[in-house]
C-alpha cells in the first residue's frame, strides 16, 4: 500500500509539472529584441614576400634619385666644387670629358640657381629631368648671366646612380659690369661714417647677416663717432672670392673717453646674387690712444663766447637743428637779451651715449635788471648735446642751480 501510494504521488507530481509547462506555452511572453550577431573575426594577414620575388624600384624611386642627383650637381657647380660635380656624372660622360676639360668649361662659373626642375619620364632604373638654371659667370670684371635649359638622364648602372647630359640650350644671355670690390668696401665705411647702419649691413653676404644679427651690428658701431678708410688694396683675387687689406681709423666713445684705434683689417668678399658682398673680416689693432674730451667742450665754449660778445646769431648757429625748429631766432634773442657778460668757469662731462652727450656748465653772468642796473648771477646749467657729422650741437638745457 505504501509503495502504491508513493507511485501515485510521483505520478501526480509529474502531471502537475506537465500542466505548468503546458500553461507557459499557452501564454506567450513578448520576445526580447534581437541582438545582432557580430561578424566573424578575420585574422589579420601580414604579407610575406615570395622567396622568388625580386624587389624592383618604383618610378617614384627613380624620380627621387634623379631630383637628388641633379640638385646636388648644380649645388656643387655653384660652389665651384668641380670634383664633386664631376663625380656625379656617368662613366660614359666622364669618358667623353675629362676632369680637366670639365674644369675648363666651368672655370668662370661663380653661382648657379635652379629655377625649374620637371620630370619628363621615370622608369625602374632611369629617369629624365628637364632643368632651367640661371648660371652666373665672372669673366674678368664682367658678370655674364645665362639662362640655360638642360635635360639630364639619371640612370642606375652597377648599383650606382649617375647623370648624363641628354641635351642643352641657351635661353638668354646678358652682361653687366661688376662693381669693383674696392668700391664696395669704400661704400661700407662711408655708410658707417654717416651712421647709415642699414645700408652698411645690406652689403654683407647672407652668411655674414646670419652670423651677425642687425641689432648686434648696430650695437657694435653705434659708439663709433668717426670712422675712415685710409687705405685699401687687393691682397688676393679670385673669380668668386677676393681678399682686401684695409687700414681703418676709428674713434669711439668708451665711458667718458674718446678712444682712437688704427686697424689692420683683411676683408673677404664673395660674389653673391650677382654682386660683391662682404663676408668676413680678420682685424687687429695696430695702434690705440685716448683723446681728451675737449671736443665736447668746444661748441659750449663758443656758444657762451658768442653771447659774451653780444652776437646771439653766432650762438644760435651752434644749436641743434631740431632745437631751432621749435625755437625761432627772434625768440632766442628775447631770452638772452639781458646778458651783458658771460663767463664759463666750469665744464664737466656727465655722460656720452653714442650720438648724445650730457655736460654740466658753470657760468658767471652779468644780467640787466628792470631798473637798468646789472646783477651778478651764478648758474649751473646741464646741456644735452647731439652729434651731427663730425661736430656736436647744443640741444636742450636746464638750470640746475642759481645764486644771486
Question: Could you report the average pLDDT, rounded to the nearest whole number?
Answer: 83
**CATH H level, superfamily name of the largest domain:** NTF2-like, domain 1
Order of helices and strands: HHHHHEEEEHHHHEEEEHHHHEEEE
How many individual domains? 3
Overall structural class, as computed from helix and strand content, comes to alpha+beta
The shape is rod-shaped
Biggest β-sheet description: 4 strands, antiparallel
Provide a count of the helices.
13
Rg from Cα? 45 Å
Distance between the termini: 154 Å
CATH topology of the largest domain: Nuclear Transport Factor 2, Chain: A
Shape-level CATH architecture of the largest domain: Roll
Helix content percent band: 25-40%
How many runs of DSSP E, i.e. beta strands? 12
Which residue ranges are poorly predicted, with pLDDT under 50 across at least 5 consecutive positions? Answer: 1-59
Order of strands in the sheet with most strands: 1-2-3-4
> Which band does the percent of strand residues land in?
35-45%
CATH class of the largest domain reads Alpha Beta
Describe the protein's architecture and organization.
With 404 residues, the chain is an alpha+beta fold. The protein has three domains: 59-177, NTF2-like, domain 1 (Nuclear Transport Factor 2, Chain: A, Roll), CATH 3.10.450.100; 181-291, NTF2-like, domain 1 (Nuclear Transport Factor 2, Chain: A, Roll); 294-403, NTF2-like, domain 1 (Nuclear Transport Factor 2, Chain: A). It contains 13 helices and twelve strands. It has helices at residues 2-26, 59-78, 82-87, 91-96, 99-106, 181-193, 197-201, 206-211, 214-221, 294-308, 312-316, 321-326, 329-336; strands spanning 109-122, 126-138, 142-157, 160-177, 224-237, 241-254, 257-272, 275-291, 339-353, 356-368, 374-388, 391-403. The longest helix is centred in the first third of the chain and has 25 residues, at 2-26. The N and C termini lie far apart (154 Å). Mean pLDDT is 83; it is low at 1-59.
Amino acid at each position: 500500500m505504501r509503495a502504491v501510494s508513493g507511485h501515485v504521488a510521483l505520478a501526480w507530481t509529474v502531471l502537475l509539472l506537465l500542466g505548468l509547462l503546458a500553461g507557459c506555452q499557452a501564454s506567450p511572453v513578448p520576445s526580447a529584441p534581437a541582438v545582432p550577431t557580430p561578424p566573424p573575426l578575420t585574422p589579420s594577414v601580414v604579407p610575406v614576400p615570395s622567396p622568388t620575388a625580386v624587389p624592383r624600384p618604383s618610378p617614384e624611386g627613380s624620380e627621387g634619385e634623379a631630383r637628388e642627383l641633379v640638385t646636388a650637381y648644380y649645388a656643387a657647380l655653384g660652389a665651384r666644387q668641380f670634383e664633386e660635380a664631376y663625380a656625379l656624372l656617368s662613366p660614359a660622360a666622364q669618358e667623353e670629358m675629362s676632369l680637366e676639360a670639365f674644369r675648363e668649361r666651368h672655370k668662370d662659373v661663380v653661382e648657379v640657381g635652379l629655377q625649374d626642375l620637371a620630370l619628363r619620364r621615370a622608369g625602374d632604373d632611369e629617369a629624365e629631368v628637364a632643368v632651367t638654371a640661371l648660371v652666373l659667370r665672372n669673366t674678368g670684371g664682367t658678370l655674364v648671366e645665362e639662362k640655360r635649359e638642360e635635360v639630364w638622364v639619371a640612370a642606375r648602372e652597377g648599383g650606382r646612380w649617375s647623370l648624363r647630359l641628354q641635351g642643352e640650350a641657351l635661353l638668354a644671355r646678358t652682361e653687366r659690369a661688376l662693381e669693383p670690390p674696392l668700391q664696395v668696401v669704400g661704400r661700407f665705411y662711408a655708410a658707417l661714417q654717416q651712421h647709415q647702419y642699414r645700408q652698411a649691413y645690406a652689403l654683407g653676404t647672407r652668411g655674414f647677416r646670419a652670423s651677425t644679427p642687425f641689432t648686434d651690428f648696430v650695437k657694435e658701431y653705434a659708439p663709433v663717432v668717426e670712422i675712415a678708410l685710409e687705405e685699401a688694396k687687393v691682397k688676393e683675387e679670385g673669380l668668386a672670392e677676393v681678399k682686401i687689406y684695409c687700414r681703418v681709423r676709428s674713434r669711439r666713445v668708451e665711458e667718458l673717453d674718446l678712444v682712437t684705434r688704427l686697424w689692420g683689417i683683411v676683408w673677404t668678399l664673395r660674389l653673391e646674387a650677382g654682386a660683391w658682398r662682404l663676408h668676413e673680416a680678420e682685424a687687429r689693432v695696430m695702434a690705440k690712444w685716448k683723446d681728451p674730451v675737449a671736443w665736447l667742450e668746444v661748441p659750449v665754449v663758443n656758444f657762451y663766447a658768442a653771447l659774451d660778445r653780444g652776437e646771439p646769431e653766432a650762438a644760435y648757429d651752434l644749436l641743434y637743428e631740431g632745437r631751432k625748429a621749435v625755437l625761432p631766432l627772434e625768440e632766442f634773442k628775447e631770452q638772452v637779451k639781458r646778458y651783458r657778460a658771460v663767463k664759463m668757469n666750469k665744464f664737466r662731462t656727465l655722460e656720452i651715449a653714442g650720438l648724445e652727450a650730457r655736460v654740466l656748465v658753470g657760468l658767471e653772468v652779468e644780467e640787466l635788471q628792470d631798473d637798468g642796473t646789472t646783477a651778478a648771477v651764478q648758474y649751473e646749467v646741464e646741456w644735452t648735446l647731439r652729434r651731427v657729422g663730425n661736430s656736436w650741437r647744443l640741444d636742450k638745457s636746464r638750470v640746475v642751480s642759481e645764486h644771486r
